[in-house]
Amino acid sequence: MTNETLTQRRSKQGSEPLHHGRADFAAPLLPSADAHQFVQRLQSAGNANNVTLTSVSTWEAASSPHKFGRAGVSADLRGSYPQIKSVLGEVLGRSPNLVLQGFFLKRRGQPTEIEAHADFVLLSRPGASL
User: Fold this and answer.
1) What is the pLDDT of residue 31?
2) What are phi and psi of 36, to 5 degrees?
3) Residues 17-45: tens digit of each pLDDT
4) Whole-model pTM?
5) Which of 105, 97, 110 has its CA nearest to residue 41?
6) Beta carbons of 35 and 60 less than 8 angstroms apart
């Protein structure tokens, strides 16, 4: 695809390039990343899907004018594979600033019971506060 074709497509879509031809990809991010609010959503999704949240830890790093704000959540979940998958789908679908950074599954004693560990990172716009 040539530069001319790319420019024509952008103008048809109504997107204006920023920063020397690059779109502002941080614009859709929320202005803040609240780990405790996310933990409440995760707990609610777990309760709705019969998944137990067995442990949670959080951390936060403030944003700066040139750096994304970040809030991390590590969670251990217990339930069946379809239930855990539903919880992840629900929280990822509702949080545009959420990244699933790591995920691990381990079978428990019963054939249908699974233990999962998930590491999430919530991002906020540069210059925004946590």
Assistant:
1) 66
2) -70, -35
3) 445 555 666 666 666 778 888 999 999 99
4) 0.74
5) 97
6) yes
Give the separation between CA 67 and CA 109, rounded to whole angstroms: 44
Contact assessment for residue 33 and residue 123, using Cβ atoms and an 8 Å cutoff? yes
**Eight-class DSSP state of 2:** -
Q: Which tokens go with 118?
A: 């998930």
115 alpha carbon, distance to own chain's centre = 20
| Closest by Cα among 33, 108, 36 to 44 | 36
Pick out the chain residues at pLDDT < 70.
Answer: 1-31, 128-130
- Bridge partners, 76 (sequence order): 55, 117
CA gap 123, 69 in Å, rounded: 6
116 vs 54: CA distance, rounded Å: 10
At residue 22, the pLDDT reads 52
102: left (phi > 0), else alpha (psi -120 to 50), else beta?
beta
Residue matched to tokens 């707990």: 43
Question: What does the alpha-carbon distance between residue 28 and residue 45 come to, in Å, rounded to a whole number?
Answer: 24
